[in-house]
Amino acid sequence: MNAIIGLCHFCEAHGPRPLFCTFTTDEEQHTTESSKGPVECSGCTSLGPDTVLVTKDDNGIMYCSRESVPNDDVTAFLRQAALRSITCEVSWDKYSGIVYFSETQGHVLSHMFHMKDTRARGLKRLFSIVVLMKDKMFLLNLTPVLSEHMKKISNELQQLAETVYNNEQSICSQRALRLKTGRHEFGQSRPLMQLTNETDIFKRLHTHFTWMLKTGALIYSETLYTSRELLNKLQPETTRRSIFEDTCLVDSNEKLSIRNLANVLAKDVFIKVLYCLLTGVKIVISLEQNNSTAILEALKSLLPKGNIPIEISKSNSQLNVCVLEECQNIFHCNWNNLPFKNPTLMNKILNAMNNDKFCDAVLVQHLKSLQLEWLGIAKTIKLSILASGQNADAVKNLKKILGVSQHDEILVNYWMVAFCE
C-alpha cells in the first residue's frame, strides 16, 4: 500500500510533532541514510537519527520505519498532519478515526488518543496515529479496517502507560502534590520508551504499522484499466459487437494517406466525396487509370467496419449517386447537393487534416478516435430511441447533451443503420 503511517505526539515544549513513521520503499538508500531534521528534545526522540527498522517481504517490498521521511515535502505534510490530528481534527467517536482531505498535499486518516503521564500537564499526554495517502477513494475504502487496528494500537499503548502511571502514583500522588504546592515544573516531555517502560516499543509499532500497510494492499489492489479492459472484466458480453471491438479500418501503413488523397482529388471534389461517404450516399468510382483500389481503400479508412456504399464501376449512368470520374488527370464529381452546413464530424476531419501539428501517423490515430466517438454517439442514440421512441423528449435532450445538431441528423441516422447492429 502506497501510504505513510506515523505516530505523533504533543510536546510540552515544542507542540505537535511527528515521532515515528513507517512507509514502503524499494530503494536501499532509504534503509541506510540518516533521518533529516534536528530532534527538538528527548520527548521528540524515537529511534534516533541513525536507526532504521526494515522488514522485507517475499516480493522485495521493504517496510521502513524511521524518525522522519526522506523527503522534504512529505515531511512537511507529516508535520501538518500531526498538528491537525492533535489540535482540531478530533472524532467524538472513540472507536473510529477521522478522515480529512487536502487536494494539494494529500489525504489523512487520523486517530487521536490520550496516555496517562504523571509528569505531564493534566496528568495525560496527547498522541495520534495518522495514515497519509494520495488516493482519496482508496483511503476511504480502507478506513474501517485501518481505524479498527489504530484503536487496537492506541489501547495497547494506553495500557502500558497506565501501568507505569499507577506505579508512580502509588509512590507519590502527583495530583495531591500539585494541589498542595500549587505549582509544577513540567519541563520536557518524557520519551515514549520511558512513558511505557517498554524498550522495544518502537519495534512493536513497526510491526503494527507494517501489518497495516501489507493488509491494505491485500484487501484492495490498485489496477489501472482501460475502458475496454474494465468492461471485459466486469461484463464481457457488453463489449461484443460494440465500439470496443476492432471497428476501425485505420491503417498507419496505408499506401495512400488521407492528405495525399485530398491532394489527388482536389479540395472541392474531396469535400463532396467526404460528405457522401459519411452520410451514406453511394459512391461510384469510374477512373481511367488503375488507381481505383488505392482510392477505395483510403476512403474506407474514414468509416467504421460495415456495409460501405462504394463500388468501382465503368458505368456512370446511376441516379442519386456520387460518381467520381477522371478526365485528363483531373478528377470530377457530378454530385452537387452539399448542404449549407456540414456535419460536425466532417468539419473535425477537415480541421485535423489542415492542422500542421498532426503528422500523418498522429492524424491516423486522431481520425480513429473521431470514428469511435461518433460511433458511440450513434449507438447511444439508437438505444435511447429503442427504449423511448423516436420523438421522445428524452431522446431530444440526449442529443443536446451529446452535441448532435440538426445538420448531424443525416450522419447519425445513417450510422445507426449501417454500423449499429
Give, in order, the helices and strands. Answer: EEEEHEEEHHHHHHHEHEEEHHHH
- Gap between N and C termini: 44 Å
Structural class: alpha+beta
**Main β-sheet, spatial strand arrangement:** 3-4-2-1-7-6-5
The best one-word shape is elongated
Q: In percent, how much strand structure appears in the residues?
A: 15-25%
User: Which percent bin holds the helix content?
Assistant: 40-55%
> How many strands appear in the DSSP assignment?
11
Which sheet architecture does the biggest sheet show?
7 strands, antiparallel
Number of domains: 3
**Uncertain runs with pLDDT below 50, 5 residues or more?**
none
Provide the residue-averaged pLDDT.
Answer: 82
* Annotation field: number of helices: 13
Radius of gyration: 35 Å
Organism: Pieris macdunnoughi
GO biological process, one term: negative regulation of transcription by RNA polymerase II
Domain UDENN FLCN/SMCR8-type: 42-421
InterPro entries: FLCN/SMCR8_DENN, FLCN_DENN_C_sf, Folliculin, Folliculin/SMCR8_longin
